[in-house]
Amino acid sequence: MPKTHVVEIIGYEYQQSNLVIEVGDKVKWINRDPTPHTATRSQAPTFDTGLLSKDQVSGEVEFTEASDANGFEYLCTPHQFMTAKVIVTLPGSNLKAYVHDRHHPTPDKRR
Where would a tag sit more exposed on the chain, N or C end, judged by fewer CB atoms within 10 A? Predict the structure, then answer.
């Protein structure tokens, strides 16, 4: 069953810099900073939250196709040093072993 994931923007960072989801899932962003931010991708699949003010929640973005292992990278338009990615897997993939996120570490299961 598809899920909706939330990525918070805090301290000029996307709190899940490598979000792993399944095809059909949706993502929305919440800006917790007083400074406006976006989540924008200019290559397919494109999306743009527009400028989000403090505590504003974006609309949901649905991901309908799987990504490669590099995921779909996006950035904040006014602060282009802010980057993150959404890695979209096929349903039934082992999501936890797929990626290491600097904010939500996942143990390496290959050891």
Answer: C
